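Priority: medium. Attachment 1 of 2:
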């Protein structure tokens, strides 16, 4: 007889995700034994939706991305965690992989990474050559934890080897171009507090930051494939990178 399925907690941090949190929960519900939502003060129906779908909701005042996710780690009832954000959905391919990986107890490795494909507003699926990040989000909290950072919400694997899954998370990162601007404005304000580079380096970098970041986004990350909309997104992202430096310099 094989081992029983691995017990997993899905952790999600939220604030005002009522328009999209349900699809996040539905995408993970059959894979996990607990859905833990740590909400930082939603004023919409986020909490009610989560509770109606069987999630355990805990309030915690916003402390920063890394800090909120470390709080999730401490609050979870199981050691293995599947971390999601309220604007993310597991693809069917990734859900099948995770189900197989956890079907017979402890997986062979202590953490697994996979792609997060960005999806434009009003699209249901990622475009070909969609921009993506690759992150560890399925892991054992006993040996890996999120970094204690305002902005760098990444899992530190330490010396442990991690695996890579083929499937992806679909990341509906922003609702509109205005939403993207506001999101990046908040994010760069936090980033400016954690920049460690010398001031003289940042003054020099400020001269080339916008064109460098625009070219990186538009060509290397494939935003050109999104046409005029992709051009606008690349501009907003590049401008936010420059804003991050300007915010840091203005504090000095």
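Attachment 2 of 2:
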């Amino acid at each position: 007889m094989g081992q029983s399925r691995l017990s997993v907690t899905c952790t999600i941090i939220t604030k005002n995700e009522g328009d999209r949190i349900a699809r996040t929960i539905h995408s993970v519900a059959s894979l996990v034994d607990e859905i833990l939502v740590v909400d930082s003060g939603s004023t919409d129906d986020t909490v009610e939706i989560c509770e109606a779908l069987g999630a355990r909701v805990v309030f915690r005042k916003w402390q920063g991305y890394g800090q909120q996710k470390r709080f999730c780690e401490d609050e979870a009832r199981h050691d293995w965690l599947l971390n999601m954000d309220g604007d993310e959905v597991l693809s069917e391919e990734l859900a099948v992989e995770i189900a197989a990986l956890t079907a017979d107890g402890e997986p062979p490795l202590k953490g697994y990474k996979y792609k997060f494909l960005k999806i434009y507003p009003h699209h249901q699926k990622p475009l070909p050559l969609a921009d993506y990040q690759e992150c560890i989000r399925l892991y054992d909290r006993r040996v890996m934890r999120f970094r204690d950072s305002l902005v760098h919400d990444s899992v530190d694997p330490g010396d442990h080897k991690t695996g890579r899954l083929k499937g992806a998370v679909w990341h509906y990162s922003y609702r509109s171009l205005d939403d993207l601007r506001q999101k990046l404005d908040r994010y760069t304000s936090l980033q400016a507090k954690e920049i460690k580079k010398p001031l003289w380096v940042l003054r020099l970098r400020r001269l080339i930051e916008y064109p460098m970041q625009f070219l990186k986004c538009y060509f290397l990350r494939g935003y050109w494939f999104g046409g005029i909309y992709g051009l606008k997104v690349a501009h907003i992202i590049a401008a936010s990178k420059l804003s991050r430096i300007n915010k840091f310099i203005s504090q000095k």
